[in-house]
Design a protein that fits this description.
This protein is an alpha/beta fold and about 180 residues long. It has seven helices and seven strands. The chain has one domain: 3-Layer(aba) Sandwich (Rossmann fold). About 40% of the residues lie in helices and about 20% in strands.
Length: about 180
């Protein structure tokens, strides 16, 4: 897409951005509550990978005749803790890798909530599983390289909705600006 939007058109488009929440997403009430409070549009829909992505609804005034989905451009996979992530990497690795393979060229952000110390928490084994620190770190770093994913650690789950919205917003903004 090589459209050139005026600043007013870009603002209008981005203000209509709708977050898509995977219909299988669990325990996301804190995210939903924030979206409602901030009047961020969202809808639940099955995603093939990731837990969150976005779309722009059609805008006839700007010549956009149908809804535009960005599910193949950017998505966010949410993990509620290092414990959940370590269990995915150790006990449910095939399913997790299968999801990463399905994303193909989609930019995926792996967002881990309730992890103030990030990699330090992994190395200090501040998670509840038998998965060893060295294996956890090696698997995570290997997957970052192999699947071109970004891992972000959030100290508190209350930061998740801001992370989700701003990540998707600026990816779409840059895409619309041709960057």
């Amino acid at each position: 897409m090589n459209y050139h939007y005026t600043p007013a058109e870009l603002k209008e488009l981005l203000s209509s951005m709708t977050i898509i929440v995977d219909s299988r997403e669990n325990s996301w009430k804190h995210v939903e509550d924030y979206f409602i409070k901030k009047k961020i549009q969202y809808k639940q829909h099955k995603l093939d990978y990731g837990d969150y992505s976005c779309m722009l609804p059609k805008n006839l005034e700007l010549g956009i005749l149908r809804d535009t989905y960005f599910t193949d451009l950017v998505c966010i996979e949410r993990k509620n803790s290092l414990t959940e992530l370590s269990n995915n990497l150790s006990n449910d690795r095939d399913r997790f890798v299968s999801e990463l393979l399905r994303k193909k060229d989609t930019k995926l952000f792996l967002m881990v909530e309730n992890t103030a110390g990030g990699y330090g928490d992994i190395l200090s084994h501040k998670y509840n599983s038998q998965y060893g620190e060295a294996s956890f770190m090696a698997t995570l770093k290997s997957m970052e390289a192999q699947f071109n994913i970004n891992v972000s650690f959030l100290a508190d789950k209350s930061l998740a909705p801001v992370f989700i919205f701003s990540t998707l917003y600026y990816h779409i903004r840059n895409y619309l600006l041709g960057r």
